[in-house]
Amino acid sequence: MASDKKLVEAITSMEDDFAQWYTDVVKKAELIEYSSVKGCMILRPAGYSIWEMIQKNLDARFKETGVENVYMPMFIPESLLNKEKDHVEGFAPEVAWVTHGGSEALSERMCIRPTSETLFCDLYSNIVQSYRDLPKVYNQWCSVCRWEKTTRPFLRTTEFLWQEGHTAHATAQEAEERTIQMLNLYADFCENELAIPMIKGKKTDKEKFAGAEATYTIEALMHDGKALQSGTSHNFGDGFAKAFDIQYTDKDNTLKYVHQTSWGMTTRLIGAVIMVHGDNSGLVLPPRIAPTQVMIIPIMQKKEGVLEKAAELKEMLSGVCRVKVDDSDKTPGFKFAESEMRGIPLRVEIGPKDIEANQAVIVRRDTREKYVVCIDELQGKVEELLVTVQKDMLERATVHRDAHTTTATTYEEFKDAVATKPGFIKAMWCGDEACEKKIKEDTTATSRCMPFVQENLSDTCVCCGKPAKTMVYWGKAY
Amino acid sequence: MASDKKLVEAITSMEDDFAQWYTDVVKKAELIEYSSVKGCMILRPAGYSIWEMIQKNLDARFKETGVENVYMPMFIPESLLNKEKDHVEGFAPEVAWVTHGGSEALSERMCIRPTSETLFCDLYSNIVQSYRDLPKVYNQWCSVCRWEKTTRPFLRTTEFLWQEGHTAHATAQEAEERTIQMLNLYADFCENELAIPMIKGKKTDKEKFAGAEATYTIEALMHDGKALQSGTSHNFGDGFAKAFDIQYTDKDNTLKYVHQTSWGMTTRLIGAVIMVHGDNSGLVLPPRIAPTQVMIIPIMQKKEGVLEKAAELKEMLSGVCRVKVDDSDKTPGFKFAESEMRGIPLRVEIGPKDIEANQAVIVRRDTREKYVVCIDELQGKVEELLVTVQKDMLERATVHRDAHTTTATTYEEFKDAVATKPGFIKAMWCGDEACEKKIKEDTTATSRCMPFVQENLSDTCVCCGKPAKTMVYWGKAY
């Protein structure tokens, strides 16, 4: 039993030190391993398989809306990066530069893509000629690189995995529709697959993407009350099209600029899953994206018939869920702790006494509720519980989010909320960047978004007292 | 009809200029687009979707053998690359070097992975302690970078997509078994999915991978008689383990070095598919990896009921194949040519007269055979034809390969064969690298492999006349 304890004791409790708890979970659940490469992480099988689940589900959703996948070079020549002014200013300070190929110095240095707007624009300027070539709705799954000073597994790493969609449309309206469509797709994915409720809204000009006309975002609240930007969708208007000369001949035979969008989600989502659902025993995975949904743990597995029965249950359950048997030579207690650490939604215990009684024990990871079930009903019960767990997880996360959302109508209230109530703060804003900056300086809270669902909390800006234009979600963010 | 012709005329015939034919096909079938980044290509939807098919199928085969996917950093610090002597000598001349992050010079420069042995070794040295931690059977799907002077779409590009498997085992025997298992898996995949027959064998010491104890290869013959190395599997013995100090405590409580393997296949496979199966009308895709297997082309589609019938056929066929309708406003002739250029295995024509006769016309891409089929039997016929086409394609490729394999027992015969008979040459070899070098200098043919299936063609080396040790496949190669 010593080793069982070791596994559990090694985690810092989240109430003591949330940041350390997070680090403990990603390591102990074997999601990642640190590497010799500063700021980069290694995604181990338990971590990468969650990304595979996310990728598979998102990719199918993309394709349903007409998205086609491509692959672009990982390099961007410096001259190409420089073509759009705002964009290069936003990214140049944080890119990695390749200066040599083999033993030769390059005539022009190239950066490793921090994002690929410039490459897609270059492509579109070559392949879009007529209205018949539009829309282009391309996406790629790849890694990108941003030179970060301080890094954190999943949340901020020098290299990370993501998808980046880049589209070109004939009209401004179509581009705006695609921008919103993808934001809605992201929010729906997060709520229904990751069980994380999202606030949908628009970024302020200060917070929008370098080169975008408008940036839309989905924002989630972590267990510690900090916000996490979980996905963004940008409308570029025709700014990039003008910089890269992407024109098409319309039906009326005149040359027009295309209108573009881009949108992305990253491995950061795994960080969100950990920080929204995890507890002091480790990870808690929503069933729909759990690579393993059910772990069967044999009790007294050396007794005759136990492993056979476990295999039989696995066979029975494999039609309705992703199921494994842990038949390693560890103790059941160790296996329980390990399965909890890894966040597997349900465990099924089967031992000699259960076999005699034609029953099995199911234990929920999220609530630890136990169910003794007749084996004939096991399949149905597992199926039902996976749905229930998924639903309950979203519900709990929503209740937590709402309980940690405060309204402030005066600056005193606002500052008090930031200091004492971790979570979102809803407050009115005049629209002036000066107030946004002052709030950040005074409190470290930033504007998360101007939500689509607006409320009129008061008529004046929470900061300067001038007439308010819009309600904003504020918060400290990762 | 002018535009129909344009599409077809633009391809160079393969008999006139095979290299130009290849370039025309990859561009005209819209598999790739050249990019602003020297030596890199853009994989367009038609090209990337073939890679997705390959990836999905291979990945499932990997997982059946216990492979787990991970993701490693794209950077390798110079000191890490330098740890294994042969390996660094093989790769250092052709890597891209990152020297700056943002505006700061790095304290140690890093290369972009040309392959990831060093990173996996570094990981294994951290996470492998006991025999219980073995085997590790990891794989990653990623891009790698090798600075090439002359490049060619799919066959040789500065950056390319691939999978790289890296395993660590307790014993030498287990490592050798995994090396051969993966080679067999590769060969089986190529024959059954890509319809390309493979010669399986071992590389000579001269041709083996930098740092490997043994390299196994699968070699295919292209339509022009040149060989293409299509996949390799390496046994490293304990060389890397010693360089990286990867030791485990065995059951007998002693420290032992692990034994390692690696194996990879790349987007080069798409080049093989083009060059084995393509013809003067463009690409010919094997049904099993064709992203679209059947293209329905409506004839006189403005006539009432035609598009509706086409949609109905699509619905009917979608249960048995990947099917699309081309309802664009191009002419049927243009659509035929386009569907042929893209290599779609079957096209189904449906027009007013067909509807009246309750029939449809199926045309095979590979042989252009036409079948007039009653609509009630369409589904069954399509299903049957997809199997037949796949089988026939492998058969034709095998017949072509065998017809272009020559035996040489004297050096005169050998040189004559290289000069006049494009294809593989089987000849005996003494095992001396000097002969291998001489043959390459004299003829530009290289040793492709020492095949597992050996024949005794003569008792003497084809080059020096000394006693022969082994039969070798030779050939000019891509």
3D architecture notes:
Two copies of one chain form a homodimer. The first copy, chain A, is of the alpha+beta class and 478 residues long. The first copy, chain A, has three domains: 13-277, BirA Bifunctional Protein, domain 2 (2-Layer Sandwich), CATH 3.30.930.10; 294-385, 3-Layer(aba) Sandwich (Rossmann fold), CATH 3.40.50; 405-475, Translation Initiation Factor IF3. Helices cover 36% and strands 27% of the residues of chain A. Chain A has 15 helices and 23 strands. Chain A has helices at residues 2-9, 18-28, 45-64, 78-81, 85-91, 117-127, 172-192, 239-244, 268-277, 306-317, 332-341, 352-356, 378-403, 411-420, 433-443, and strands at residues 32-34, 41-43, 68-69, 75-77, 96-101, 104-112, 136-145, 159-169, 199-202, 214-221, 227-237, 247-249, 255-257, 259-266, 294-298, 323-325, 346-350, 359-364, 370-374, 405-407, 424-429, 446-451, 470-475. In chain A, the strands form five sheets. Chain A has an eleven-stranded mixed beta sheet, sandwiched between helices. In chain A, strand 12 and strand 13 form a beta hairpin. The longest helix of chain A is centred in the C-terminal third of the chain and has 26 residues, at 378-403. The first copy, chain A, is globular and about 80 Å long. The two termini of chain A are 38 Å apart. The model of chain A is unreliable at 1-6 (pLDDT under 50). At the A-B interface, strand 2, helix 3, strand 3, strand 4 and strand 5 of A face strand 2, helix 3, strand 3, strand 4 and strand 5 of B. Strand 5 (96-101) of chain A pairs antiparallel with strand 5 of chain B.
